[in-house]
Structures are given as C-alpha cells and as structure tokens.
Specification:
The protein is 78% helix and 0% strand. It has helices at 2-10, 17-30, 37-50, 54-67, 73-87, 91-104, 109-129.
C-alpha cells in the first residue's frame, strides 16, 4: 500500500487517494494484533492530511502514538504538534504538544526541534498581540 501511496503522490491528479485510504483501513482490520500497527495509523494520518481532512489526520496520528513503541513516540508527538501548529493553527494545543515532547523526551533530537517550535509560536503570539 505504501508503494501505491508513493505512486499516487507523484501523480498530479491524486484520484486514487480514497482507494488507498480504504486499503490502509483494511490493513487495520486484518492485522490488528501486529506490533507495527502504529505505522498503518501513521500512514492513514498522512493520507488524510494529503486530502486536507485535518480532523481525521489528527485522530489517526493520535492512534499511531498510542500504539507506537517508546522509541518512535517522540517523532510522532512532534508531528502531531506540527499538524496542530501549521495546518490546524491551534497554537495553544501545539504548544502543549511540543512541551510534551520536550518534557517526556528531553534527550532526543525531537526535543530540540520542539523547543524551536515553541519559541517560534511564542514569538508569533507576541507579534500577534501588538
């Protein structure tokens, strides 16, 4: 399914995204007990993002985070914050999410990126008020 997604993203029309979403959903049903299930939720989140279905993208990234092993959580939590910040423009939730990465995973490279994002959001909020 990932190969289909890559091919679809290279095409200009992206007419088959609904088919790809249904294939990922079928994987979720058929392989619910597989340890890598979180990757399917993550890819489903990306598909919804490409379709500009941001609420569904957020729901699926949250599911991916809940199933992900500890070593993969920081990157996904950071991506959730990015989704909240850039696409949903929910700055308060994005701040909370980036703070979560910084506090729970202080020695990760994602913590450093999260801190930069926090600083950017706070700078934006200062300029927005003036």
């Amino acid at each position: 399914v990932n190969n289909l997604l890559i091919k679809e993203l290279k095409s200009e029309e992206q007419d088959n995204m609904k088919i790809i979403v249904s294939k990922y959903k079928k994987l979720l049903v058929n392989f619910y007990d597989v340890p890598d299930l979180y990757k399917t939720y993550y890819m489903l989140s990306r598909c919804y993002l490409y379709q500009n279905q941001l609420d569904k993208a957020l729901i699926n990234i949250e599911k991916a985070i809940s199933f992900a092993p500890k070593m993969d959580k920081p990157s996904m939590i950071y991506e959730k914050g990015f989704l909240q910040y850039i696409f949903l423009r929910n700055y308060d939730k994005a701040l909370d999410t980036f703070k979560e990465v910084s506090l729970k995973y202080p020695n990760s490279s994602w913590s450093l990126l999260a801190q930069k994002s926090i600083n950017e959001i706070l700078k934006f909020k200062i300029y927005k008020v003036n």
